[in-house]
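SEQUENCE-TO-STRUCTURE ENTRY
===========================
Question of interest: how does this chain fold, as expressed in backbone structure tokens?
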Amino acid sequence: MPSVTVNSAGRSPAVARGLAWPVTLDLPEDATIGDVKSALAKRCPKFYKERQKISVKDDRKALDDATRLADVSSELAVKDLGPQISWRTVFMIEYVGPLIIHPLIYNLPRIFYGGPVQHSRLQQYVYAMVLLHFLKREIETVFVHRFSHATMPFRNIFKNSAHYHLLSGLLLAYSVYSPPFSAPSPYIRGTVRDDPTWLNAYAAAWLFAELSNLHTHLTLRSLRPEGTTKRAVPYGYGFDLVSCPNYFFEICAWVVITLMTGSYAAWLFLVVGTGQMALWALKKHKAYKKEFGTEYPKGRKAMIPYIF
């Protein structure tokens, strides 16, 4: 039974100061990096696997849990990533913000605007669309998504949630449900923003984008067996043109709301969200091409068909 030496990357992890560094572990011949993490966690339960980042000494790149120790010739180093929180919990916290904020501002205008607001058809449509969007996201988080990484650092929850709670939550709701968008407002009354035909057309476009987004999420789910991090080349609806059609259809849904309202808050959320999703899409696109090589379709773009 071979042994492996694990040192601390930088200062000894505060949560694992009970361990004598470097730590020598006796592991089976076919042991992996995941087994190293499990062995360290067994010696110090507070230093659980998700908190650990293991790399070759003097190299910052994390080793995958499936990497065999036989393929790693150098001494290992472990870094404490800090307290972790599951990605599923992160998503649920992010999306619940707008689900609370929008009803509060919509139904309690006296508190936020100092008086009543006679809601226009536009406000009613946007209210329903925003709530349905984030309710869909919560349902997908619980029943559809399968995560390649189980957790992320707890401290990041505040940064991640701010995007949704502040931009698509507080700022969007305060702008769209305000008196300038109400039924008596000249911005609404007698314009296409109060025309049921116009509103229904945009609602249909929004519904198409939302259902298309759901379809892509179901496709991605089907590629990853439960409890694994397996990756495969996705094909079919949307994926024949771009690597991340889920992001493309999400953008389309928010474009509808932005065009419907013309709100500065909707434009801001759309621009910021599109920029962030573009970065994610490009990263995933490059990862697909690197992992699958010539098997990956050459004609695909990252996020926007034929463009990007």
Observations:
- The two ends are 51 Å apart (CA to CA).
